[in-house]
Please model this.
Amino acid sequence: MKYFGLIWHNVWRKKIRTSLTILSVLVAFLLFALLNAVGQAMSTGGATTGAARLVVVDKVTIINFLPRSYQNKIAQVPGVAAVSHQSWFGGFYQDSRNQFPQFPVVPDEYLALYPEFVLPDEQLQAWKRNRTGAIIGRDLAELYELKIGDRIPIQSTIFTNKDGGRTWEFDIEGIFDTTDPKGGTAVLLFHYDYFAESNTFGDGFVGWYTLRLADGADPVEVANAIDEQFANSPNETRTSTEAAFAASFAKQFGNIALIVRMILGAVFFTLLLVAGNTMSQSVRERIAELAVLKTVGFRDGTVLGIVLTESILIMAIGGVLGLGLGWLAAQAIGSAMAMFVPGGIVISADIILLAIAVMIAAGLLSGVFPAVKAMRLSIVDALARG
Amino acid sequence: MRILNQVLAVTRLNILNLPKRIATSMVAIVGVAAVVLVFAAVLSMAKGFERTMTRAGATDTAIVIRSGSTSELASGLGNDQVLIVETAPGVLRDGGEAVVSAELYVLVDIRKKSNDSAANVPFRGVGSRAFDVRDSTALIEGRMFEPGKNELIVGRAAQSEFKGLELGAAIKFGRTEWNVVGVFAADGGVAESEIWTDVRVLQGAYRRGNSFQTVRVRLRDTGAIAGLKEALRNDPRLDVDVFSERQFYSTQAEGTSTFIRVLGYPVTILMAIGAVFGALNSMYSSVSARGKEIATLRALGFGPLPVLISTIFESTLLALAGGLLGGAIAFLAFNGLTVSTLSNASFSQVVFDFAVTGDLLLQGLVTALIIGLIGGLLPAIRAARLPVAQALREL
Model:
């Protein structure tokens, strides 16, 4: 640390060059933060992914419905604490581009499964009293500027109601938040009873079941028990954890993670070249100076450390600025991307930790050749040349 | 004329001693190459997806779908409604029989060969006229399924992308086993991602009674669609939308290709900004490395303008080299690469090839050129303003 003044001075020896290098690093880490955040949001599908929940879907394809009668049978499987169902309503608000999930649910059952959703009790009671009532998540309320008391038309692409139309109107009775920092709330929930009575396909079917495991229950055993129970019936099931379900869905989009990694690879390769070039130029220019340092008694290791710290410092300044900008950008574009990435774009703690690790690694990599060169410098030659 | 000669002379000198500054120059070249590579790779996905979706689209084929349905999956039509469509005006007739195919569209889970994860593969029940209502669709291997049997034919792209669809194989969906008896091609269109069987068999297997989702209609001619729309809209027994096949598929392509663009353009712009910084850096070092040379030229009587132009020329040249390199890598590595993705609109897999097209490469080169110009301008001004006496003293 006592050499910090010296290092700081060296970093800014050529102001333009250092500034430009820092700016390239900044851009790289801005991209790093955003692409990783988008990748993460896509791979969880923006869904809340509690480890203790399982999802039961039709084995052939998730677009097939499951019988309503399965609920009691699933509830009786040992290890199941609570179970409820959801169905894909496939609706949009005003314009077919404004698609977001709407689920017909049984209020108390559903909220018991998702304790992370927080809804004031008086709003819950109001919702339960109103057959055509609905509650929406905070993300959705902000996205379309909706408030309690609004009556909103949702046009379903799938279900016709008894009037022969596909426009369903709901009264917003509540707005819920989530305590899960990674979970999105761009969802509308309405009464299953109303849905079952009013749609022309009739009741008796649901999209899929979600269940909460009892404490200490083995998810694999429970999943197998459920799937075995319905084997060789007209509706065989496939049970998986919520996280695995969301991941398998995200995988269908193709290898987004791979594409993100490829882009980041190209970015960092370039970054290393730029920074490495800056460092080696800077060392080349200072050969005489480094030789003087050695003459006055600086050890080889110290010289190595000084040069390496310099390159890590450049990376760190650019990296931190880039992450900061990325965070700001994530706030700004989160709502613009809400249609594709419902949970919003969050720069999570693991992305930041990873970014810091990358800063240090890139600093070391780009600085190591110049630093070794500086360390091995023979004083006599260097002074003669300078 | 004298100026031009000076420009040529200085530029020539500049280019000739480029190899001395190879390390710094390479940084600029690679930086620009990376931008063009990422740009071409990402945007070629959007291009390829659109190409596959729209290639299928004929203007003399219409798709009749329940009104308000944004995808085939969400639609539903009864047998009575299909019969009304068959007798509507504008429908092509062949020996008294309407050239239409009433179809049912379901999804089945099949594993992808690439990552072994389950994917929503479209499974379509078609009528006997399925090939007549689609252009350039033909069996290329095996035979047609026999009506009434659990037999299916698979699209060429589906066969190469998903597991267990080899000719002669038996594959189980739920409790029903199907035999793969044929392979069909559709000129690279979206139908190649599908598997087909007899619509009556599919109705039975999926307990859909006598219902369909869409009717595909071959029109008498391209202009006949207006009359068909009019007739079907005014029929009180129907509640349907009519699209030309081309219009239907280009709407379907929108969501996914917009998504890729929304991702691709900002990334490219950010990377281009980063590359400008890299280019500026290289050119500033180039100018400082050539300080003596520039000062000597100026002392000999060369004007500031030739120095300025030659520096901008150098950075543009480096950027273009980078652009060509990036474009070439993108073309060699990605053009024709087959992948599949879940289409937002149809909720099913679409198999497509990356398309690194000429106009994408051109856009990439223009981007490279802009990076080169911006990256060269400021250093060039510095070079032109270099105080001669001082620079010579530093010798």
Q: What stands out?
A: The mean pLDDT of chain B is 90. Chain B has two domains: 2-54+253-393, 68-238. Chain B touches chain A through 55 residues (CB under 8 Å).
